[in-house]
């Protein structure tokens, strides 16, 4: 049986994320757990890292769980367990975040997290619905997604990837903003799938369907 673990490290709307995953997983029997127990993470077939708030605070929360980052690296980088980062959980995949100084990230993607640049008529944070523009339809996480699909965003910072091939979808908010990123078994969404209705449920379904 598949077992998806949503990491509880003091950041993220865990109940909302868990409900969305449980809704999608009900038909398949995929077990969904919310946990900070590294023993559970070691047994996971899929791992989800949500995140809300400041990059540095989220990174500190992850570091505060003894052994968690080492276990995540072993599971995701070595064993190739499917991994999904959501919002700041996606941003933590970068080498560093530039929010009130520079904070080191997980470094799983060659990317940095920078402030959104305000444009005339646009407010920061970027909050609300926006349309996706697909850049790469091939990865499993992208199946069934189309240009113009709507997703729900809440963020003031965005990921800038060195390798444009790791940007799977973008949205427009005073310029291109990475909406979905990925490489191999590692994927991330800047938007919140649990708040993105049909688009978000499809992303969750796609993720749970990825075989490690």
Structure commentary:
- With 212 residues, this protein is an alpha/beta fold.
- The chain has helices at 14-25, 38-42, 55-63, 68-78, 88-91, 197-209, and strands spanning 3-7, 31-35, 46-49, 83-86, 96-98, 102-104, 111-115, 126-131, 133-134, 150-155, 157-161, 167-172, 176-183, 186-189.
- It is 25% helix and 31% strand.
- Strands 2-1-3-4-14-13-12-9 form an eight-stranded mixed β-sheet.
- The chain has one domain: Class I glutamine amidotransferase (GATase) domain (Rossmann fold).
- α1 crosses α6 (197-209).
- The protein has six helices and 14 strands.
- The mean pLDDT is 96.
- β1, α1 and β2 form a beta-alpha-beta unit.
Summarize the structure.
The protein contains six helices and 14 strands. It has helices at 14-25, 38-42, 55-63, 68-78, 88-91, 197-209; strands spanning 3-7, 31-35, 46-49, 83-86, 96-98, 102-104, 111-115, 126-131, 133-134, 150-155, 157-161, 167-172, 176-183, 186-189.
Q: Quickly give the CATH architecture.
A: 3-Layer(aba) Sandwich
Q: Low-confidence parts, pLDDT < 50 over ≥5 residues?
A: none
Give the CATH level 1 class: Alpha Beta
Order of helices and strands: EHEHEHHEHEEEEEEEEEEH
Number of strands: 14
Radius of gyration: 16 Å
Total of DSSP H or I helical runs spanning 4+ residues: 6
Largest sheet: 8 strands, mixed
Class based on secondary structure composition and strand pairing: alpha/beta
Residues in helices, as a percent range: 25-40%
Q: Averaging pLDDT over every residue, what do you get? A: 96
By oligomeric state, this entry counts as single chain
Shape: globular
Question: Can you say what the CATH homologous superfamily is?
Answer: Class I glutamine amidotransferase (GATase) domain
Sequence of strands across the biggest β-sheet: 2-1-3-4-14-13-12-9
Distance between the termini: 13 Å
